[in-house]
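cron nightly-structures :: item 1 of 1
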Amino acid sequence: MENSKKVLIVTYYWPPAGGPGVQRWLKFAKYLPDFGWEPIIYTPENPSYPLVDETLQKEVPKNLKVIKTKIWEPYHIAEIFSKSNQKFKGGQFDVGRNQSFLAKLSIFIRGNFFIPDARKFWVKPSIKFLKQYLTENHIETIVTTGPPHSLHLIGLGLKKELPNLKWMADFRDPWTEISYYKHLKLTSRSDKKHRELEKSVFETADVTLATSYTDAENFRKKGANAFCITNGFDKNFELPNNSIVKNDIDKSPLLQTNDSGKFTLSYVGVLEQLRNPENLWKALMALCEKHHDFAKDFELKFVGRVDDKILNEIKRSILKDNVRNLGYLPHDESVKEMENAALLLITNFPTESSKGIIPGKLFEYLATGNRILSFGPKDADVEKILIKTNSGKHFEYSQNAEIQDYILSVYEDWKSGRTDFKLSDIKEFSRRELTKELARLL
């Protein structure tokens, strides 16, 4: 890498962190050297990760330089106020009628006392450390990725200290436009502070990255020089003649029975109440009541962390004998579960403001060749990708009969062994192609 340009990547999530937050820059770091860039990772030495996946350690490139400094986080204080045993994490909390007093208090503290988030105490020490490190190592380009959005304040501080520094701010999720922002119980003063900090980041960063088309457009409206680089998949496709797919895909889905012999609808990842597709459960109950064969063949599988209230509600219904909850699995095992499914479920927040969210697992779903069942707001970016790739169907949360019809059609294909379902145009979502675009912007 002697002739490579160096880029320092400031990220909170790094192996052994589990979950989707770590995947994006782990994969960019893997492929950046192919395009003339040497990535250097800066991450906390002692982070508080909600999920840990030790298997991701083996995906870290062996010659990658990783720099770590200590971070102080007040999460043990927040957890005192939380009734749940789960890690206190923005966006994963009870809403509406399910909130206890302690839950409300913990959310109020999170939104108003830790601005923009509880990792804020790492900002000043990191600016001091990195100013010296960047200067001594002649590094002229940095990337900050959030959430946590406090990491963008590291970029903001360094840009002020080193005016010639080139700074790219990567938003894996929006800041004030994210769906749970309105649930943070912010005072008007706190809300103003969040928005002022967000505005400073947008107006100061040389380039702002979004993971969806809608987010990039919204960021531009707020003064950012914004571009969209979505998340993606990191996998080759083998055709029957053993050739590697270069452009389009003409590949049958995995409609054959999996190892359980069941017609499996799988959800992989975290499912909280804000994205609970209640009408889907109703549609599945109706299908089980109306179609004896479907009830016998059907399996609803959860891989990851599912809210207890959602699970308990399903287990009290006619679907109780059709449910398998595998809990959190290492990433490679989760991918196998995606591949074994006949239908893959993805859910988004139902609000209009969430149409720009493209969950990272969508692209791993695409890589399986299996059909996808999606829920979210009308005209969502996820829907655009499903239409473009001919990979599934998107529904609003209010629909029911249409959901039943679609699931039944996929089931009938599965039952009869039909293999005429085709995907197209997915090469652009491969991690290597996306990194090529990243290198161009850098």
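cron nightly-structures :: done
Residues 374 and 394 are 4 Å apart (CA to CA).
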